[in-house]
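Sequence, please.
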């Protein structure tokens, strides 16, 4: 609000991401009074669209994606006047670019935020066009959606192209998982509580599991998804970023420079998975038909109407080779069409060293801290306790539960809103540096290459299950098992 003016320019402005996530996030920012009075929102798309038709499309999206009662007529009237659809073919530097440049330059004092919700192969060209039309000022910011590239080489090329026109301080590589409320709370939990940080290492922690499970299938993203697959779509970014936040050293200050430097050290310490280890430590799956939430669903190949070896499930046993994490496996998994939608980080502690209670008192379960990203955001601590109503000592696992929705009045989580406001405020703490993105690709490249070898085929799993049985076997070999919701 203290900015003189703000121009948010969304390339891919009428696309799925824009309508589903960005417009609701911007509207919520409006609702909270966080948009400067002179804010304009430009939605760039190849097809031309009349202003009224575009406003109606955004309105429809808001009705669908906002929570009940969030849509306020008065605020909508303000918000809708900010919306400007622009028809522009990025690939052609022509009079469309000129007329867009005129529109933007009508308010030269404004800070421009360019949001690229388009295929990464167009990032370089878009930046070059913005530069050619002199639309980049020292205050401009650019937001890049993931995945950046499809391997290390392509990611480096894209980062280089963007770097020709934008300084790293003005590049926001967005990973919406970092905007989720519980993820930010993970930092607060770790770095403001002596209780946990003193136990946060391989001396006390037995294993870490990070699961991003989805029930949806391909949705409308057939072409994109079949080219990407789970490793590129979820592991390269969301899963590895979460792993970094769990594993990083406490930064001396929680600012962008220090957080990003610590995350990078974690990525550099990831033990390479190459050669035979790829077969031993990773599992790749693809869903067949089955039942999800009580309804029959087709298999991946039927949804796709084509042959494909793209994985819709990935599981990895990873290690971080440093002093803190020596010997602690990090199990990562993600999949589509699984039994339930949930995203969780499980920190499982080691068993107690001495059993003072006899066996008759019951089986001890190791302590677990469960950080739940969605749904029902919160943090649970699983402890052992005595059943108080019994005379003889009998032990039972109990749960301490911090439920965000019940604890914080008016709590509602919108990761994109949070991150867009960070871009506007110029705070890069929750965005990835190019070195992180490239390090993550470098670690995954050998796995990608092996998985995409013509002889490699994903393991089938039934839709509505917890993934291929090979993923269970991966943990069982080490005496472990996946922690699924009850
Ligand atoms: C996106 C992936 O980054 O995250 C999608 O491209 C996935 O495939 C989505 O469905 C999951 O996000 P969320 O916030 O719904 O868990």
């Amino acid at each position: 609000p203290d900015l003189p003016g703000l121009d948010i320019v969304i390339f891919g402005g009428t696309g799925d991401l824009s309508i589903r996530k960005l417009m609701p996030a911007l509207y919520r920012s409006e609702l909270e009074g966080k948009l400067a009075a002179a804010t304009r929102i430009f939605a760039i798309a190849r097809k031309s669209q009349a202003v009224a038709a575009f406003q109606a499309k955004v309105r429809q999206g808001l009705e669908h994606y906002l929570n009940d009662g969030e849509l306020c007529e008065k605020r909508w009237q303000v918000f809708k006047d900010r919306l400007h659809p622009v028809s522009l073919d990025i690939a052609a530097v022509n009079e469309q670019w000129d007329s867009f440049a005129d529109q933007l330059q009508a308010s030269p004092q404004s800070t421009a935020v360019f949001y690229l919700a388009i295929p990464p192969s167009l990032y370089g060209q878009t930046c070059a066009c913005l530069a050619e039309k002199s639309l980049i000022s020292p205050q401009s910011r650019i937001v890049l959606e993931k995945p950046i590239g499809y391997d290390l080489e392509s990611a480096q090329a894209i980062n280089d192209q963007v770097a020709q026109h934008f300084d790293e301080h003005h590049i926001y590589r967005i990973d919406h998982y970092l905007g989720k409320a519980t993820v930010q709370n993970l930092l607060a939990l770790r770095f403001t509580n002596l209780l946990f940080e003193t136990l946060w290492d391989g001396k006390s922690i037995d294993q870490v599991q990070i699961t991003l499970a989805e029930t949806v299938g391909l949705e409308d993203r057939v072409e994109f998804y079949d080219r990407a697959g789970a490793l590129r779509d979820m592991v390269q970014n969301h899963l590895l970023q979460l792993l970094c936040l769990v594993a990083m050293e406490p930064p001396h200050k929680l600012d962008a420079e220090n957080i990003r430097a610590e995350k990078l050290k974690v990525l550099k310490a990831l033990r390479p998975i190459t050669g035979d280890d790829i077969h031993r430590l990773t599992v790749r799956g693809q869903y067949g038909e089955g039942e999800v939430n009580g309804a029959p669903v087709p298999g991946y190949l039927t949804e796709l109407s084509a042959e494909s070896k793209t994985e819709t499930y990935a599981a990895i046993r990873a290690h971080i080779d440093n002093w803190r994490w020596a010997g602690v496996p990090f199990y990562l998994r993600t999949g589509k069409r699984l039994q339930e939608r949930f995203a969780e980080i499980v920190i499982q502690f080691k068993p107690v060293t001495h059993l003072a209670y006899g066996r008759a008192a019951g089986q001890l379960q190791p302590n677990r801290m469960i950080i739940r990203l969605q749904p029902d955001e919160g943090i649970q601590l699983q402890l052992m306790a005595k059943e108080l109503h019994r005379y003889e000592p009998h032990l039972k696992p109990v749960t301490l539960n911090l439920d965000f929705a019940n604890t914080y009045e008016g709590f509602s989580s919108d990761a994109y809103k949070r991150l867009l406001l960070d871009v506007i405020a110029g705070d890069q703490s929750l965005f990835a540096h190019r070195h992180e993105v490239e390090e993550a690709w470098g670690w995954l490249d050998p796995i990608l290459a092996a998985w995409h070898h013509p002889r490699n085929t994903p393991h089938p799993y039934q839709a509505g299950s917890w993934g291929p049985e090979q993923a269970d076997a991966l943990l069982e070999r080490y005496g472990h098992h996946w922690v699924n919701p009850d």
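The chain has a mean pLDDT of 94.
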